[in-house]
Structures are given as C-alpha cells and as structure tokens.
Here is the input.
Amino acid sequence: MVNCSCIFSAFCFVVSNALGIAVIVEDVLKNDAFESEREKALDADYIQSRWAHRYSIAPLIQTAHIFNAAAWLFFLTPILQLAWALSRGGKRKVGVHAAIAGFALAGCMSEVLTRLLMFGGWNAAHWISQSFTLEGWSDSDDKVGWKALEIVYIIMNGMLMWIDAFEWVCLFVVMILIYFSIGTEMPEQRSLSLWWGRLGLAIAFFSFIDLTAELLRLEDWKDFQKFGIFVAIVNTCIFLPLWLLWLACTLRNVMPTTNDDDVSRDPIWSPGVPETSSAMPSLPMPPPQSFPDQNSAVP
Here is the structure.
C-alpha cells in the first residue's frame, strides 16, 4: 500500500512551485512596467502602478502560499515515520535520526507560520492601500504614504525570502542525513534503495544552489530570478516529487510488520526480554529417591 501523505506532498509541491514560478514571470520577467531604478528611487506614481499590478496577481500568490504550507505539512509525517523506522525504534544512530526529525519539523513549522504571517501582512497592506489616505501628508504632496507602505511591503517580503532560504537549508540537511543513514546500513539489512538516497543527494545539491540564488538576488534581481526559476523547475517540480513518489511506494518496507490483527513477532520492533514461556523450557523432574526404613535397622 502506498503512503498517501507522500503523494499529497508531491502534488502540493508541484502546484505551489508552478504557481510561484508563474508569479515571478508575471511580476518581474514578463512585466515591461517593472523598473528597478524607479523602485529604488521610491517614485510614488510608479509605486501606485505596482500596487495595481499586485492586486491582479494576488490570487496566484495566495494560492501558492496555501499549497506550499500544505506540501510541508504532508511532507512532515512520512519523514518522521522514516526517521523512526531507520533508527529501528530508537536503537540505531539516535542522534542522526533525531536531527532528521528536528530539521523536518523546523522547516515545516517555520514555513507554515511564515505563510500565515504573510497572509495577515498582505491583507493589512491591501486594506491600507484601498481605505487609508496615503496622499497629502505634507504641503509638497509627494505621496509619502505610498512610499512608507512600499518600504514596509519590501521588508515583509525580505522576511519571507530568508524563511524560504531556511527552508532550503532544512531540506538540504534532511536529504544528506537520510542518505548517510541508508548508506551506513549493512547491505543485507537495507530496505530502501541506495539509488533513492542518491536522488536525495541530487535534491540536496540543487537545494544548496537554490539557496545561493536566493541570496544573490540581492545583487542582481532579474538575472538570478531567471536562474532560480530553472533550479526550481528541476528540483521542486521534478526531483522532489519523484523522490516522494518513490518513498510512497517503499516506505512500507522499513515500517514494522506487526499490527492489531497480526501478533507475529517482528525481530526489529520486538522487546529485548523474551517471553517466559518460550525462553524457559520445562526441565525433567528427577526420579524420586528411596530411603531405608528406620524400623528395619540392622541390630
């Protein structure tokens, strides 16, 4: 039986990253009105036009956030199961598998919390831009309100960028440690394919590249956005979903075989103390000893 959480996670990762790529293309690469110099100069008229464009792509952005948070939530469950199973129920390389679970949990929680913060921040910014008076704050009427709103929005997006970078760090560490755990198993005890672990190494490599592209966007936004799109297509739309689908079909091989209906003993998950009935066989009773009768003593 396949693991449904892996399938849902793979689907959500593909949808969220496809929508994210569409947002970048529509917002920066395909938008002829995007001018970084006017953005840096805080041109009020240009900022107003940018907000009008953001309203048009807001549904894409919000949907991408929802699917990305759902992808990490579905991703967490099989990773925790895998870490527990590879540790043989906490009997093998406890530190390594605890780190796998910890980084997966940290990546999931940070991603979900950040997406919730982004929902609240975007709704507040949208409300301010539509309902508040952002012009005529001074005699010069330089639309200081629009400039202040734009600065706050850039800061909010910067927070999201660094959280996305931390997401790639968590994914990098998880994939490296899973490959280490599988690679250090004895060949006759290995239940997961080593090629599946090597695919995880490729995902870790591309995660590191994507992390680098995220950071270098501060130097040249447009060029490194194009490079980041290519890496995202290869990593999160092809390799990571394939890795998850492979895991969905093979996770049962490392899970315990016992359940409520099958009471057969599993050599991995069985307790260390054997049962008394099987460990202590009955010993033969010694024959009774005969003692001489005291009344027939020799005189």
About this structure: Residues 44-86 form the longest helix (43 residues). The chain is about 70% helix and 0% strand. Residues 175 and 201 are 6 Å apart (CA to CA).
